[in-house]
Write a structure and sequence with these properties.
Elements (H helix, E strand, L loop, with lengths): L1 H22 L5 H23 L9 H24 L2 H7 L5 H9 L6 H17 L11 H23 L4 H28 L15 H24 L2 H8 L2 H12 L6 H19 L1
Helix pairs in contact: 1-9, 1-10, 1-11, 2-8, 2-9, 3-7, 3-8, 5-7, 5-10, 6-10, 6-12, 7-9, 8-9, 9-10
Length: 285
């Protein structure tokens, strides 16, 4: 079940990143974050009320608050790094986020077997290659590297925090709801500050109603991915769950190939293949 939930996480995060990337071509990144997370918060609030999740409130929710504080910072750092580019460096470098939960798992005493160690190495290499690393060409700004490392550290920290935020399914719904409320509060404050500095909150044509389903999908897919990752990490080794959950760049690349007809470079195709091999090694180890 660990492998199943972790792979579901990669699928959901990969599709959410793809949808978010499309939206940020037409609207500011902060607006995308705030609108998508607000929709997710409303849906989660209804689920919490329906399931009686408020009864699970306790000290563990502080982990959800912390995840909600770290998440927007990581996401906005990632978007800014992508804007500075080149994307062929930024995207695969962000997969270093897997180092945080893997390190925590090893610190807590997890010791993957030889097959799983091989699977981790192959899968991580595959993810990096699937991002299409730029081996030559335009120089990389130091600020882009720094922002990417901040994003990777933040994403990895969210991995760890959301796992500790609950012990039951209803408690997980409440934790995700609290995380989203915090996301909206932090993102909303940043958006307000940006508007005060003269940055427009909406594109010139306004926020098209036709785009709302995409905003909803991005927000809900991100929420679902956090949930499936928490389930994966609670039911098996964190080292395995984190690596399998980090395969989302492969999904994003394949989505771009399928929907936007973007052609995969040879290095990306090779990376996707290695990621699959690593996944099989982890699942069978």
């Amino acid at each position: 079940m660990t492998a199943f939930f972790a792979l579901a996480t990669s699928l959901l995060w990969g599709l959410a990143d793809f949808g978010g990337g499309l939206l940020t071509r037409r609207a500011p990144a902060l607006t995308v974050v705030v609108v998508s997370q607000s929709i997710a918060a409303v849906v989660l609030g209804a689920i919490v009320v329906a399931t009686g999740g408020w009864s699970e409130a306790g000290p563990r929710l502080w982990f959800a608050v912390a995840a909600g504080l770290v998440g927007p910072v990581a996401l906005l750092s990632f978007y800014q790094a992508l804007a500075l580019g080149p994307m062929g460096v930024v995207s695969p470098l962000a997969t270093l986020s897997v180092a945080v939960p893997v390190s925590v798992g090893l610190f807590l005493g997890e010791r993957p077997g030889p097959t799983q160690v091989a699977g981790i190495a192959v899968a991580v290499l595959g993810v990096v290659l699937a991002g299409g690393p730029q081996l030559r060409g335009a120089p990389v700004q130091r600020r882009a590297i720094l922002l990417t490392l901040v994003a990777a550290l933040g994403f990895g920290t969210v991995f760890v925090l959301i796992t500790e935020a609950s012990t039951t399914v209803t408690g997980l719904f409440l934790a995700l709801f609290v995380q989203r409320l915090t996301n909206v509060a932090v993102g909303g404050a940043a958006l307000y500050a940006a508007v005060r500095r003269g940055t427009p909150a909406l594109p010139e044509a306004g926020l098209p109603w036709a785009a709302l389903p995409t905003y909803a999908f991005v927000g809900l897919a991100d929420v679902a991915a956090n949930g499936t990752y928490a389930l994966a990490a609670q039911r098996g080794p964190v080292t395995v769950a984190a690596v399998l959950a980090s395969l989302y760049p492969v999904v994003t690349a394949l989505a771009a190939r399928g929907f936007l007809r973007e052609r995969l470079r040879a290095v990306q195709a090779a990376g996707a293949g290695l990621a699959l091999v690593g996944t099989l090694l982890l699942a069978t180890g």
